[in-house]
Amino acid sequence: MGAVVDSGSERAVPLNVPAKREIVARSSRGDRIFRGIVSAGALSSLVLLGLIAVFLIVRSGEIFGRFGLDFIFSSDWTAGAEADGSDSTFGVWAMLIGTIIVSLIAVIVALPLAVGAALFIEFYLPERLRSAVRMLVDISAAVPSVVYGLWAVSIFSGAASSWGELLHKFAGWFPLFGVENEQYDRSPFVAGLVLAIMITPIITSVSREVFSRTPPDLVNASYALGGSRWGAIRNVVLPYGSSGVVGGTMLGLGRALGETVAVYLVLNLVFKPNFRILESQGGNVASLIATKFGEASQYEIKALLAAGFVLFVLTMVVNMAATYIVQKKSPLES
Amino acid sequence: MSDTALAPTPAPIRPWKVTPRMVAPQLGLAFGGAVAAMAVVLATGLAGFDGWLVVFVPISIIGTLLLSRSKGAVASVDAIVGNGIVTVAGISFYPIVSLLWTVISQGLDALLNWNFVSSDMRISGPDDELNMGGALHALVGTLMMVSIAAVITLPLGVLTAVYVTEVRGKLRTLVRFIIQSMSGVPSIVAGLFIYSTVVMGMNKFSGLAGGLALAILMLPTVARTAEEVLKLVPDDLRSASYALGAPQWRTTLFVVLPTVRSGIVTSGILGVARIAGETAPLLLTASYFTATTFSPTEGPVASLPMFTFGLLQSGTEYSFARAWACSLLLLLAVFVLFTIARALSGRDKR
Q: Residues B191, B284: contact at Cβ < 8 Å?
C-alpha cells in the first residue's frame, strides 16, 4: 500500500546498448554498525522463542525422562508426598482432550458469529456508525480475560447451563450431548461458549479488516452485473477474504487453546477424558497449571512446566500453521 | 455556499440510495416482530431474552420472505440472508454489550468510594465494607510492571520493525514469521518461562519477573504494529534522503522514524492495552501482595487482574463489588488507551 512503484515488466532493450554497469554500494561504517544493532535487536525475538522452549524442556526434562509418552497419553495426576516424586504420577491426556474439545466448541460457535458480524459491519451498517462499532469490536478483543471470567461466572454461566440442559433434553440421544449426572454447570459446553464469546471479537476484527480491503471495483462489477448484495458477498467478498478469515480463526483458536483464567473460573477440573460436553467435568492444560501451581511441590512444579511445554508446542503448531496460511495467501501481506 | 449562481443541474439518479420508504416496511417488521415475540414470551412458558430471540427469529424470517415475495427469487434470498446476517451480528454483539453494561453498573458501586483508589488492602479484608481498603496497591503494581514491560519492549519492537522494513535483512521473512507466531504464545506459558528462569533464579516472586513475563506478550503486538506503520512511509522520503547523501542510519533515525513518531507511540499503546489485563502470567511471576510496594525486586507485587482474580475466589458480596470495580478500572484503561491510539493514528498523515 506504500507508494512503491515496482514494475516487474521487462522492457525491450535495444541490442546496441551496453550491458548495465553493476553498481556496487559499499555501506559506510556507520551503516554497518547500525545494521548490526538492528539485526541483534530483531534476532532477540528468535532467541527468546528458542529460550522458552529450551528452558521449559530443561527444567521439566526429569518428568519427560521418567514418564515418557505416558505423560501425554495417561490421565492420572497424583502428587505424592515424597520429595523425589517416587509416589507421584503425572499425565495430561484428559487435560489435552479437554483443551481441544473446549477450543473446538469455541471456534465452531464463534466462526459464524464473527463472519456474520464482520459482514454486517462492512456491508450492512450505515457508514456513520461503522467506525464506532469497529472500535467496540477492537475494545472487546482487548477486554482482559479475567473480566470475561467474572462476567461469565456471575451472569452468563447460568444461562449457558440452562441452554446445555435444553440441548440435552432435545438432542440427548446424540452421544456428545448425553449426561450421567443431571448437572449442567461448569461443563466444557459452558466453558466453550465463554471462550467463543472471548474469541469472536478477535475473529471479527481480522475478518472485517480483510473484507474491507476487497477491491471496490470487484464489488461494483458484481452489482453492475445485476447481482444482489448477497451475490456480491458470496462471489467476491468471501472468496477474496477467505484466507483472512482462516487466519483470524486460527488466531482465535490459539487464544482459546491457551486461555487460563476464564476456563479456570467456569470449568470443573476432572482428570478423566470426557467427551460428553454437557457433563460437569472437563479440563484444560492452562487451567491445570493455574489450579495446581499454588500448592505444588518442587516435583509437581516440574510436571507443570512439562505440561506448559506440551501446551507451548500445541499452540505453536496451530499458530505457525495460521501464520503460514495468512502470509501465503492473504492480500493483506505486501 | 450559495447555489443560486449555478445553473440548476438535475439531481443525479441514485437507484441504490436507501429511502425511508424502502426501510419503513423492514423497520415495521422488526418492531412488530419484536412486540409479537414479546407477547408470545409473556403468554407462554418461554422465558427471558433467549425465549424472545427464539420467537423473534422465525417471525422476522417469515416476515422478510413475505415482504420480498413480489421481487423475485434473487431478491428474496438476498433479503433472507441479510436478515440472517443482521441477526447473527446482533447475537454476537449481545454478550459484549451485556458485559460492558454489567461491568459499568456493578463496578460504580465500589469505585465511587474515593478510598478505592487511594488506599490498599493492607488492613482490610476482601469482604470488608466498601468504604474501607482499595485498589491502590494493585494500580501501583500494574503501572510498575507495565512500565517495565514497555521499557524493554518498545526498543526491541521498533528494532524488529526497522529490521524488517528498513534494513531488510536476510532473515526478515523468518523474523516476521516468528513474531507472528509469538503472538500466539499462551500467556501462562510466558509466565512459566519467567518462573523457570527469573523466579527460580531469584528464589522469590517479584514485579521484575512480572514485567518480564508481560514483555514477552507485548513484544509481538509492538513489533507488528510498528512494522505496519513503517510500511506506510513513502519510499520517496527514503530516496530523497539517500539522494542527499545520507547513509541508511541517518535516513532511518532522522527521516523515517520521526515521520511516524505517533504511529510508534500507538504501537506501544496497543501493546500496553494488550497486556494490562493479563492474569495468568502474573499468577506465576508477580503473585499477589496486599500492601502497596514500589520495589520491583523485593518480593510479590499486586496487580489489578490478580487482585480481581483473588476477589473472585473469596466470592462474598463485597469482594464481588470490588472485583467489578477493578474490572471497570481495567476497561477504562483499555478504552482510554484505544482512544489515544485512535487520535494519534490520524496524526501521521503525510
A: yes
In chain B, how long is the greatest CA-to-CA distance? Answer: 84
Least CB–CB distance from A308: residue in B16, B189, B334: B189
Q: Which residues of B touch A197 (CB under 8 A)?
A: 95-96
Of the pLDDT bands very low, low, confident and very high (cuts 50, 70, 90), residue B279 is: very high
Closest CA to B134 of B117, B113, B110: B117
Architecture of domain B136-345: Orthogonal Bundle (1.10)
Which residues in chain A show pLDDT less than 70? 1-15, 24-25, 327-334
Test B223 with A45 for CB contact under 8 angstroms: yes
* Closest in B82, B169, B309 to A42, CB measured: B169
Domain ranges for chain B, please list them: 20-111, 136-345
- Nearest residue of A to residue B18, measured between CA atoms: A126
The full DSSP string for B263-305 is HHHHHHHHHHHHHTT--HHHHHHT---SS----SSSS----HH
pTM of the predicted model as reported, rounded to 2 decimal places: 0.88
Domains along the sequence of chain A with CATH: 97-279 (1.10.3720.10)
A55 contacts in chain B (CB < 8 Å)? 193, 196-197
pLDDT in tens, B80-129: 888 889 889 989 999 999 999 999 999 998 888 888 888 888 888 888 88
Q: What tens digit of pLDDT does each residue of A28-87 get?
A: 888 899 999 999 999 988 899 999 999 998 988 888 888 888 898 988 888 888 777 778
Instruction: Answer yes or no: do B248 and A27 touch at CB < 8 A.
Output: yes
Q: What is the pLDDT of residues B286-300, one digit of tens each?
A: 999 888 889 888 889
**Beta-carbon contacts of residue B342 (< 8 Å; ≥ 6 apart):** A135
For the stretch B259-278, pLDDT in tens is: 998 889 999 999 999 899 99
The cell for A88 is 507421584
Q: Does residue B13 surpass a pLDDT of 80?
A: no
Q: What are the b/e assignments for A102-136, b being 16+ CB within 10 Å?
A: bbbbbbebbbebbbbbbbbbbbebeeeeeeebbeb
